[in-house]
Amino acid sequence: MSSNNIKEVVFGDDRISIEDIVAISKSEANVALSTSDDFKLRIDSAVTFLDDLLDEDGVIYGVTTGYGDSCTVDVPVSMATELPLHLTRFHGCGMGAPFSEQQSKAILATRLCSLGQGYSGVSWPLLNQLTGFINKDILPVIPQEGSVGASGDLTPLSYVAACMIGERDVYYKGDVVSAEQAIKLENMSPLVLRPKEGLAMMNGTAVMTAMACLAYSRAEYLIKLCSRITAFTSLALKGNSNHFDDILFSVKPHPGQQEVASWIRNDLNHHEHPRNSKRLQDRYSVRCAPHIIGALQDSMPWLRSMIENELNSANDNPIIDGVGEHVLHGGHFYGGHIALAMDTLKNCIANLADLVDRQMALLMDTKFNNGLPANLSAAKGERRYINHGFKAVQIGTSAWTAEALKHTMPASVFSRSTECHNQDKVSMGTIASRDCLRVLDLTEQVVAAGLLSSAQGVRLRIEQNELSAATLSKDLASMLDIISTDFELLVEDRALESDLRQTVSKIQSKYWDLYNG
What we know:
Layout: E1 7-11, H1 18-25, E2 29-33, H2 37-55, H3 83-90, E3 95-98, H4 101-115, H5 124-135, E4 139-140, E5 143-145, H6 154-164, E6 169-172, E7 175-178, H7 179-185, H8 197-202, H9 206-236, H10 246-250, H11 255-267, H12 284-287, H13 289-311, E8 319-321, E9 326-328, H14 336-364, H15 391-406, H16 429-463, H17 474-486, H18 497-508
Parallel strand pairs: 1-2
Antiparallel strand pairs: 3-5, 4-6, 6-7, 8-9
Helix pairs in contact: 1-4, 1-9, 3-6, 4-5, 4-9, 9-11, 9-13, 9-14, 9-16, 11-13, 13-14, 14-15, 14-16, 15-16, 16-18
């Protein structure tokens, strides 16, 4: 543990997990470099090997040559120290909104993980500078747009490299200031890049992979929350709990789907209080919810494998094997695995939005909601004629769902030839990751609306004595109590924007404990 009693994640030896990156990004963990002999050997030998090659006038891509298609241009050894500075500067052309502070910190940690493999030819001063930036919250302001995901995240990562040498802007203590100013205030010095270090900082998949880590963590929670919302919806609709029976799901052995069905079954207290509706079969958005949510739950293990393998890889070019004295030119900067993972994840997440949107539509409509008031309005008597419940929220939910579904077009198939046809097949992994984050934003809005409306439906059933609170499972009753405390029953029309925003914030902070955390 670090001196301030928060977790410390050590880079350079063991594998780093998605959870490690998320914890660092939230300032719940500090970072440190390994002190093992093996790690020291990998770092020192690579630096020494590069120095020896330069002394021998060896030809090294990006060190004594130009970059990309310019690799045929020889750079005099006397100018090799200037080359990385030029690389950071001419890539300073990012556009679009900047990544958030949390996202920037995740990017720094992800890049440190790759460099910490010890095959990038970087020195201790660079590693220490990157570690210092993370622990002192000197976080580069990085524009989101401008990467094709091969040759890695060159343009966005140029902002990281530039800030470490004292150029461009950073988030620092709640403000945006020059990197030079923040470095000075922390009694640090601007980094002087050695040959290869500009390329090592920029030529890799750190941006897309960092976003993938954050996206994965948010998806884990949405899986559980959509299962809970399905239970609320089933209760509110007087649904048939037999749809989630353990014998039924034993004959279709997808483990993730079975797990989702068990969550919903336990929420519904099925074995103690089986609920059989007048309909033999509920509509698909309730009956097939374990199959829809389960498809994502069953995908999570291989998505984790893809993301964490990329996270724990040396993914720049060339690879420097200092111990074996090899310079290995290849394409490890290619973000194809992250592109596939994020195109897959955003598709599955959008399906959750579509599921909750359909469940909410059933709750609103008196033709389908089995006796609930129109739009779930709790107004009574003559007041019911002028009150509208969740009517507008359901319209908004439809809009958010449609936009989420629109973003499911795979980014990875839109490869573009660029950079004089040197980068003639690229991954688009960073765009896929950014798309996935946007789909998550929209889906969390849908889920917020679905949670508040389905909980209102259950509260109305209890109020109408059509459901006994005593028959609710302990976990479901506890969550309903929390929601009822935070969200006043919707009787008279009121603006719900603040309630929705607060609920989205709670979703993103994993406010409710779900299924053993």
